[in-house]
């Protein structure tokens, strides 16, 4: 959909009810811009991206409009254009409803009926937003089915007396051609021609039809390509453009290929380029984590972010696309905290929307092996264990974080030490489920090191106490878990009553005091 077209639809004066000129955007603008259809098509992506950049400067708090026109879910109104479009859409809806009433009044019970379908403003593909966007407004219910072009009755003419018009009439034929444009594929941009009183000559119509068909075939081919390319699986055109921009700006030298495709992200390897600013050095090798912008995956993970008070206020006002960006943002913040505490982890290079660039852990395009895949001497394994114990304590005490997905899958062995990665889901310990996440992390870690034969490895309960500074004495898992949940509940009750979180740990490393 042409994002500008809807808001600026020039309602040309013409036959039809007088009220059809009533446009909320003031005087109709009838100047036509002369450019070829091909130009319009190629500008499409650029326009969309421009629009997105304008309305989604991140981070931002999105205003929520509750006007007479908008009902249901919160709608992103960060852009005036979007608001204008929605108003125009609402106007068009009312206009069409009125049109239908008018039509009904005129036709009554008559066998021969006339149709105003040509004048309708809203069309099925008006709601068809660009392929990979998952805005709330995309789910808007569209009550209109596909239009049929008006036809002249079999007798070949309409009207009476001197007002008679035949099917060969230039005007009728032209309008009919305009209406027939709706039979083109929905992706085919016919602009606002259908809503206007356009008269297309047969010659122009046929040329358009040819073009529409070849566009349809081309887009089917493109679609197929997109679906089948594995390396670029999660990379939609917009993401690709973001990546190209990074290479174009010289920040990255080349993007060599994909390291990992997961449920929530795809990770690429790239060679670093030159930084625009002197004070920043781009690492020679980078990892690019692209967070997937699909609805399903984010649903599974929203519990990590919804209750994180750092993001709580923003969460409810955002659409899925923005929540995905918050994942990337969260990973960036968490990595920065870890970096500051001196925990070995990727160093953040840049964050652009849902794309996070960081330093690459590994060498010559080969990523460091995960702890689960590496074969270490028992000496090294023991060293790794103590390092992990140390990192968990640092993470908790110095970074005020719980990893929440800690396991041998998210620890890499590189340069003779363990590197922590994948921290988009990490939360602060005061998160309503923070301590449960920590306990789960402890279970993974202690089970792994016990399995690989580190005799010194604490069991999960001992590890939990060692990391958190709590002193839970339960000697079995069930009771231990119950105490953890009781602690979390106490904290939540405190928030309810006092509006702020209890400090779960004190600066001198003593166990926190829970004596309210
Ligand atoms: P996911 O949520 O998909 O598990 P991760 O952040 O764990 O995302 O990344 C997936 C995989 O990509 C990791 O297991 C690791 O092999 C690789 N990877 C991620 N970040 C880096 C990095 N900075 N350097 C090297 N490899 C990385
Ligand atoms: Mn991972």
UniProtKB/TrEMBL annotation:
Gene Ontology CC terms: cytoplasm
Keywords: Antiviral defense, ATP-binding, Cytoplasm, Immunity, Innate immunity, Kinase, Magnesium, Metal-binding, Nucleotide-binding, Phosphoprotein, Ribosome biogenesis, Serine/threonine-protein kinase, Transferase
Catalysis performed (reactions): L-threonyl-[protein] + ATP = O-phospho-L-threonyl-[protein] + ADP + H(+); L-seryl-[protein] + ATP = O-phospho-L-seryl-[protein] + ADP + H(+)
Enzyme class: transferase
Biological process per Gene Ontology, one example term: ribosome biogenesis
Record-annotated membrane-spanning stretches: none
Annotated GO MF terms: ATP binding; metal ion binding; protein serine/threonine kinase activity
SUPFAM superfamilies: Protein kinase-like (PK-like)
Keyword Membrane annotated: no
InterPro entries in alphabetical order: Kinase-like_dom_sf, RIO-type_Ser/Thr_kinase, RIO_dom, RIO_kinase, Ser/Thr_kinase_Rio3
Keyword Disulfide bond tagged: no
All residue ranges annotated as the RIO kinase domain in the record: 224-469
Subcellular localization: Cytoplasm
Basic and acidic residues bias (residue ranges): 137-148
Domain of life: Eukaryota
The enzyme's E.C. designation: 2.7.11.1
Region named Disordered: 126-161
Cofactor dependence: Mg(2+)
Family from the record: Belongs to the protein kinase superfamily. RIO-type Ser/Thr kinase family.
Quaternary structure and partners: Interacts with CASP10. Interacts with IRF3; RIOK3 probably mediates the interaction of TBK1 with IRF3. Associated with 40S pre-ribosomal particles.
Name this polypeptide is given: Serine/threonine-protein kinase RIO3
Species of origin: Cepphus grylle (Black guillemot)
């Amino acid at each position: 959909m042409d994002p500008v077209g809807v808001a600026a639809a020039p309602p040309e004066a013409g036959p039809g009810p007088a009220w059809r000129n009533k446009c909320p955007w003031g005087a109709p603008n009838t100047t036509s811009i002369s450019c070829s259809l091909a130009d319009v098509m190629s500008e499409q992506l650029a326009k969309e991206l421009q629009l997105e950049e304008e309305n989604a400067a991140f981070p931002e708090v999105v205003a929520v409009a509750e006007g007479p026109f908008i009902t249901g879910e919160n709608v992103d109104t960060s852009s005036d254009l979007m608001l204008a479009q929605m108003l125009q859409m609402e106007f068009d809806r009312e206009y069409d409803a009125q049109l239908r009433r008018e039509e009904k009044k005129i036709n009554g019970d008559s066998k021969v009926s006339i149709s105003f379908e040509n004048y309708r403003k809203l069309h099925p593909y008006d709601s068809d937003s660009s392929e990979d966007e998952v805005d709330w407004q995309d789910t808007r219910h569209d009550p209109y089915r596909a239009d049929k072009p008006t036809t002249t009755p079999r007798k070949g003419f309409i009207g009476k007396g001197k007002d008679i018009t035949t099917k060969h009439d230039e005007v009728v034929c032209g309008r009919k051609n305009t209406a027939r444009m709706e039979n083109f594929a929905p992706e085919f941009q016919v602009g606002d021609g259908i809503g206007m009183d356009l008269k297309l000559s047969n010659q122009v119509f046929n040329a358009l039809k040819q073009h529409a068909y070849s566009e349809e075939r081309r887009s089917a081919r493109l679609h197929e390509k997109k679906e089948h390319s594995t390396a670029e699986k999660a990379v939609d055109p917009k993401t690709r453009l973001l990546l190209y921009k990074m290479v174009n700006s010289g920040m990255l030298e080349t993007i060599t290929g994909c390291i990992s495709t997961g449920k929530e992200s795809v990770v690429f390897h790239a060679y670093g380029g030159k930084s625009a600013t002197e004070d920043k050095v781009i690492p020679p090798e980078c990892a690019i984590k692209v967070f997937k912008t699909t609805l399903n995956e984010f649903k599974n993970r929203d519990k990590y972010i919804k209750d994180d008070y750092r993001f709580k206020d923003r969460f409810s006002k955002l659409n899925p696309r923005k929540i995905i960006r918050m994942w990337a943002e969260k990973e960036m913040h968490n990595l920065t905290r870890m970096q500051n505490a001196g925990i070995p982890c990727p160093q953040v290079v840049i964050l652009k929307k849902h794309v996070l660039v960081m330093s690459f852990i590994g060498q010559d395009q080969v990523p460091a092996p995960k702890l689960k895949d590496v074969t270490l001497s028992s000496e090294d394994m023991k060293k790794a264990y103590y390092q992990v114990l140390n990192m968990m304590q640092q993470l908790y005490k110095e970074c005020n974080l719980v990893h929440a997905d800690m396991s041998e899958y998210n620890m890499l062995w590189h340069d003779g030490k363990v590197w922590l990665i994948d921290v988009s889901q990490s939360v602060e310990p005061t998160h309503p489920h923070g301590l449960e996440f920590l306990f789960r992390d402890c279970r993974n870690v202690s089970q792994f090191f016990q399995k690989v034969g580190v005799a010194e490895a604490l069991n999960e309960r001992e590890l939990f106490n060692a990391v958190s500074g709590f002193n839970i004495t339960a000697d079995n898992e069930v009771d231990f878990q119950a105490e953890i949940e009781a602690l979390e509940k106490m904290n939540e009750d405190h928030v309810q009553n006092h509006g702020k979180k209890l400090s779960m740990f004190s600066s001198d490393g003593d166990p926190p005091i829970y004596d309210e």
